[in-house]
């Protein structure tokens, strides 16, 4: 305790790290300098937090760890955490996917002097590095103990043969499991293995704790930056997608064809097309009232139904109390277009697209369904890999990322599909506590659009 820094020093460093994060997030800055500033801020935050624990003498871990024996000195856990964080940041820019997890596992195992490292999401091991074990590796399901660590958000240290629900005959001796938390939700875990029956060195437990805190903070910071990029990219991609040649030419050809047989219909379609382009460029905030998003979808379907005729039918049903609920802009139209282009075009018989929105308890639930050709089961997981998908320049993964970024992991996009039967995508959004709150939110968006 006597070597611990004074409380005011710790508090000052913690505040400094927050200021660095906020300033670099608010002002224009090159990505290289931003990455360096964030790394320094994260290191300061983690170090300050660890010293705060010392100052207040928080209770020790529930498991017993041994102190370091005399002999060759080991790297300081805080220093090791900083080295790993500097190398980890570039790999986390696309989120916690398999490639990023594998890179993180390699970096940690190489730097931390442990026998094996696992990085997981909430379901399975995403990345593994170090001593091989037939019971572990990328793709293997998590033990009940690991799931409980994520649920309770506590660090646990135990022998691998004590893992509840794990496989037998694991050749690794001891493991420390720490949860990864983003937006107040457990999104995965980090597991450090030591192939020894002895008690785990205290520095390994400290390292796991520091790495979990640092990676959690990095993921939140990177997610915030990605949301800003997505907001800007969404407007650009929407502009590029809406005027892409084959969509524009197909609609114009349809209008020209109607001009010879039904001039009034051609004029109406031309007005709809102009409205479609205008709406894609008019909104600049992250959210929009559901009624406006539905109107945009209806315009798109009107244009496509004129093109496909009886081959395309559609139905839109929205509960009146859901009309003013704010939803992320350009969320439904990409899903509807995916249903039309990928679900119905290759269907021999006429197809149906339906959009249904209704409040259920404190959430708004929206279903986008089609009775098209369906999606092969082998490809359904890949659709939600970050950077995958397509549809008006805004793929399913893009929509899923924006929803989770705005509302957290509890609100995500779910897909159910059967080949030859069709596909349904379910979206869930938080309902405002009152209609007044929804109106105020949309009014604020309108003010932002007027600036």
TrEMBL record:
Q: Name one GO molecular function term.
A: phosphorelay sensor kinase activity
Keywords, A to Z, come to: Kinase, Membrane, Transferase, Transmembrane, Transmembrane helix, Two-component regulatory system
* Top class in the EC scheme: transferase
The reactions it catalyses are:
ATP + protein L-histidine = ADP + protein N-phospho-L-histidine
Q: What is its EC number?
A: 2.7.13.3
Q: Which GO terms describe its cellular component?
A: membrane
Q: Which Pfam families match?
A: HATPase_c (PF02518), His_kinase (PF06580)
Query: Could you identify this protein by its name?
Result: histidine kinase
Q: Which residues form the Histidine kinase domain?
A: 332-433
Q: Which domain of life is it from?
A: Bacteria
Entry's transmembrane regions: 7-27
